[in-house]
Amino acid sequence: MRRHIWKTSVAAAAVAVLLMAGCGGEKKEQETLDETRRESHRETLEELPEIETGVNLIVNPGFEEWDGYKPVGWTTKIFTGEGKNLSFYGKSDKARSGESSFYLRGTFNTDRWVVVMQRFPVRPGHKIVFSADIMTEDIKQNRGQKDNLGVYVIFFDGDGQRVNDRYFADAWTIKRTGTNSWLRKDKETEVPDGARIVEVGVLNQMTGYAYFDEVSLVIKEKIDWESKDSKFITYNWFESRPFPPEDMKRMSGLIEEIAKEAGIKEIEGRINYFLYPDDETFMKILERSMCRTIAIWEKKELHDVKSFNDHEIIHLILYDLGFPPVGLSKGFVFYFRAKYEDWDMHIRSKRFLMQKQIPALYKTIDSKKWRMADYSVVVPAWASFVEYLIDKYGMDKFKELYAITSGIIEEEEFAKRFRDIYGFNFQEADRAWRLFIMRYEGDAAADTLPDAGETQ
Question: Phi, psi at residue 151, to the nearest 5°?
Fold first, then answer.
């Protein structure tokens, strides 16, 4: 367990007041600031709260202690609804561990929903992990009911106002319906800017019984990354192992050249490359049992102990262009990698073609069939095919194909889209490419692509 205290010039007590009274603290001198200035000043004027990391913060997580009909350490409140029919709640002997659990029950006409919750101080930038053992009985969504059931978290600022009220909560565990035995699923989220308090609670807004046991909320230790921005990438590293400047320069140059050729002027968000000092730190922080590159596509994050990873970075710079079948996606990535590494994909494909190892490309469109293929053969083949299409018909037309086949995994649909773009059949293009490869007169010495590993 670690304790954290950030001190600033003003010792405000807004957070303490919020915890004790359940409402926002006094605004005092900030009342004279407009809303924009208040938001920007709050970060520096308030004292950030003391927090505990690495431990379960929940008091009475297994609902073993009770004060009458209320679980000790938990606050009961109305979550939503203005009707007269309150949801039922209380102690149950159906426990995952120990002797008791907490239940929430809705009926067909429930119109006011009870939750139990606890609140804790937090700091922006830290990640929190929350979960509970949950069992359900005959849970169903009746007319007028929401389908919310599980553990939720909501973040508040120093004045007790929600940081973001777009949804019923800021994050929640996987929702449940029907009848299910005890199941636990962790959920991780990041404390947003401006947050000072997190509320964690258990909720059931449907008809039926939901049982909760061993609730947990853990604030993870925050890593103080050193960082440097380039046009598309932010490089992040530990002070103990700086990111090699020459690798940042190589990576940035590669990505900017690819973006220029692919017509990418900007991307949504930024690519974040996190460099870890060693395998042990990587596995500890990311909670993995082995050290292997992790790419989180939707966040455009790359986590690695290697300081140069052109493969995953190219995937990330191309991310916004779409999600076509794996062969087309891999082929585009290796089209660029081949240029950078000076690999001749045509000469490699010619060797495989003469050995009759390359399957008809349409047979690798389906993701299940792709997984059964020999990557060391089909990846260079698709890269060669992509290069053939781009050289013969242009980058713009290929990007149209890339975008229009996003999400497609069926051979017939892909072939239809291919014909829409190029005006002829996919299999016809496959045959023309094979004829081109057989006539290709590249230097066999240029066949420098490693036989395995690099094509994964």
Answer: -100, 135
pLDDT tens digits, 213-256: 999 999 998 888 999 999 999 999 999 999 999 999 999 999 99
As a whole number of angstroms, the distance between CA 298 and CA 119 comes to 30
Burial of 181 (0-12, 13-18, 19+ CB in 10 A): exposed
Question: Please, how many CA atoms are within 13 Å of residue 436, restricted to the half-sphere of its CB?
Answer: 17
Lowest mean pLDDT among 14-23, 33-42, 68-77, 92-101: 14-23
What residue type is assigned to position 2 of the chain? R
Closest among 64, 99, 89 to 205, alpha carbons compared? 89
Q: How far is CA 337 from CA 181, 234, 312, in A?
A: 49, 21, 10
Locate the domains of the chain by residue range: 2-51, 54-219, 226-446
What CATH architecture does domain 54-219 belong to? Sandwich (2.60)
With tokens 């995953």, the residue in question is: 312
Mean pLDDT of the chain: 88
What is the tens place of the pLDDT at every residue in 10-32?
A: 333 333 333 333 333 334 343 44
Cβ atoms within 10 A of the Cβ of 434, count? Answer: 20
Q: Report phi then psi at 3, rounded to 5.
A: -110, 145
